[in-house]
Design brief:
Blueprint lengths: L11 H12 L5 H14 L4 H8 L3 H14 L18 H11 L12 H8 L4 H10 L18 H13 L5 E23 L5 E22 L5 E6 L4 H14 L4 E6 L9 H6 L3 E5 L10 H13 L7 H17 L25
Parallel strand pairs: 1-4, 4-5
Antiparallel strand pairs: 1-2, 2-3
Length: 354
């Protein structure tokens, strides 16, 4: 049943607004129909005739006649609609964060999306994933750190960094360390042709061992060049033999040698007395990253050793020697960019992990 038609009286100002709305090419269709309904109603047209001309139901015409008669132009705007109430609220988010602070269920190493949803009971796993992504919480990634408990960390670190940034005049600064137990592994390598015609290159998982070698290396900080020799073992005897070859490479030169806090690098006072031109500098405990030769060992592993196969220990050693020669032809010094080295106290600090 159509309600009784309301009389519509348009002011001159409202009529101009509605007529401009009808003429505008960017007016939305819903606003255009509402404007036409009100204009036709102000001309005294009946509800049914307006509905037929505008192309809507008579009840729609009656609705906008009443809305304009009661509220004017503001009545032609849509009223705010409540919409669907959200299923999950900030309380749900707090529950997820609170649960992440607790240990995972017994037998599990870490929380996962399904485990969180199961523990919450009334939260869908897809919402859990969306919440974790929005807060940039990665349940799989893990940070690692190494705390140095060396009481002289600052002094030792400043000493090493000082050699990098401002080396002594007419002196050679060397970074020395060992890469022990490099395995000569023989793996089947080549191309694997798939049924679809695609060819893949790679290596097999099974391998045969042909022994190990320990690589002693010295990196010259000023040039970036490497001095390297092989040894079967990693003892003080082998270390001092390598240092003898290093001193022979730089005769009558003052050498500042940066070493890690390894037992074989300590208690070498007799050797140092016999070589007064050599001075050892130790990195702080648990801070071998200060030794630049560690960077070169990482380069060696990535560019020369990963994905290779060797049929003998001799072949491995020749392979490394060839890489060292090629590296020295294009060697460049590493640049120390960190401005300050600080020591932070970890004692008494609580490290939380999500």
């Amino acid at each position: 049943m159509i309600p009784e038609a309301r009389e519509v009286h348009l002011s001159r100002k409202d009529r101009k607004v509605l007529e401009a709305c009808c003429r505008s090419p960017v007016t939305l269709q819903r606003d255009l129909k509402r404007a036409r309904i009100v204009l036709l109603a102000a001309d005294g047209r009946s509800t049914r005739s307006i509905a037929k001309e505008v192309g809507v139901q008579p009840r729609i015409v009656s609705l906008w006649r009443h809305r304009y008669a009661d509220h004017g132009l503001e009545g032609l705007q849509d009223k705010p609609r409540p919409g669907k109430q959200p299923i999950y609220t900030k309380t749900t988010d707090k529950r997820i964060l609170k649960l992440l602070d607790k240990p995972p269920p017994q037998g599990f190493a870490r929380w996962t999306g399904p485990l969180l949803a199961e523990a919450l009971g009334d939260v869908d796993v897809q919402y859990v994933w969306r919440f974790l992504r929005s807060h940039k919480i990665d349940l799989v990634a893990r940070k690692s750190w190494c705390e140095s408990n060396d009481p002289n960390f600052t002094a030792k670190a400043a000493d090493v960094v000082g050699l990098y940034v401002a080396p002594p005049a007419k002196a050679i600064v060397l970074c020395v360390d060992e890469k022990p137990s490099i395995q000569a592994l023989e793996r089947a390598q080549g191309y694997l042709k798939l049924p679809n015609g695609r060819a893949l290159t790679g290596q097999s998982h099974d391998y045969k061992r042909h022994g190990t070698t320990t690589l002693f290396a010295a990196l010259e900080v000023a040039t970036g060049k490497i001095i390297a020799t092989h040894s079967k073992r990693r003892r003080r005897v082998e270390f001092l033999d390598f240092m003898n070859s290093v001193t022979a490479t730089f005769p009558n030169r003052k050498l500042h040698v940066i070493l890690d806090n390894l037992n074989t690098h300590k208690k070498n006072e007799d050797w140092l007395k016999a070589h007064p031109n050599v001075q050892f500098h130790s990195t702080p405990t648990s801070a071998s990253w200060l030794n630049q030769v560690e960077v070169w060992f990482s380069i060696l592993q990535g560019q020369s050793l990963s994905g290779t196969s060797f049929t003998s220990l001799k072949q491995l050693q020749e392979h490394i020697d060839a890489y060292v020669n090629a590296y020295n032809d294009r060697a460049e010094p590493f640049v120390w960019t960190k401005k300050k080295v600080r020591q932070r106290r970890f004692k008494g600090r609580r490290i939380t992990q999500l």
